[in-house]
Amino acid sequence: MKNFLFLPFFFLISCKENVSRKLTASDIRIELEKNNPFLSEFKRTLEVNVDGDSEQAELKFDSGSGCNSYLFEEENRFIITDCDGTWYTIDKSTHKISPLGRYWRKLPKAKYVCTYVISKKLRKTIIVKEKDINLDLMYLYGGEM
Fold it and tell me: Three-state DSSP class for 20?
């Protein structure tokens, strides 16, 4: 009788370990790494961190002119638009980051969440909520390829 009680209990515990919570906007960050001690240049990395599991993607390097990234939300995924026109998707269930393509001077057909702006004074990315998105500021580098 003990084996019959133990087996369902073990099954419930092992199933719980594989369940991960759904991704939220607060799990998404853009980390900065200083490239040059004298100039305001930063390496930028998109990072998704949920319950200790981390996923990363390298974003466009900021040469000092303020390379912003924009977060949009759909039902099952987030979309990050980077300043060079590259879009990334982040799946809410798997937390996987995938490149979506390059779209110059376009807005995703999704709900705007926030903008990741580099604070050179703080040397980190801060999150702001813009009332109106300026495409000239959104797309600083690159163009159609």
Answer: coil
